[in-house]
Design brief:
Protein name: DUF1667 domain-containing protein
CATH superfamily of the largest domain: CPE0013-like
Largest sheet: 5 strands, mixed
InterPro entries: CPE0013-like_sf, DUF1667
Bound molecules: iron/sulfur cluster
Number of domains: 2
Number of strands: 11
Organism: Candidatus Caldatribacterium californiense
Helix content: 10-25%
Strand order of the largest sheet: 9-6-7-11-10
Pfam families: DUF1667 (PF07892)
């Protein structure tokens, strides 16, 4: 996003990533208003959020105990506030999940009070007696 200062407003451009067309949306920020130019309604909503409160879907892994692999792939159920992603990663670093887990299962509701949930993106079965999980980070 680039910015060019004007007297009482700032002009910037947001590259929309909502669909493969990748439109550029002009955003003029005035003291009490936001004027959007270009793109479709979905893209304009994305641009508005990107300028006022940027969010990202977070994908990562967390520790899983008793599973066939030691890390469980997870993602947030919706875009998460960008300025709180570091806090989220600290939370996830301390999280331990117990196998078995099914793909799509909600592991943590309302992450850090944001209303966004943590969802498993892979099914991990529980190891039986005598079975060993694969090593890894
Ligand atoms: S503005 Fe609309 S059409 Fe353009 S990339 Fe975004 S979602 Fe796609």
């Amino acid at each position: 996003m680039s910015s060019v200062g004007k007297n009482t407003s700032t002009f910037s451009e947001v590259f929309c990533i909502v669909c493969p067309l990748g439109c550029r949306i002009g955003v003029e920020q005035r003291s009490d208003d936001l004027i959007l130019q270009g793109g479709c309604p979905r893209g304009q909503e994305y641009a508005r959020q990107e300028v006022t409160s940027p969010c990202r879907v977070v994908t990562t892994t967390v520790r899983i105990l008793g599973g066939e692999i030691p890390r469980l792939p997870v993602r947030t159920s919706a875009p998460f506030p960008k300025e709180r992603i570091f806090e989220l990663m600290e939370f996830l670093r301390a999280l331990e999940v117990i196998a078995p887990v099914r793909r799509g299962e909600v592991l943590v509701e309302n992450l850090l009070g944001t209303g966004v949930h943590l969802v498993a993106t892979r099914t991990i079965r529980r190891l039986g007696k005598g079975e060993e999980g694969s090593a890894g980070a």
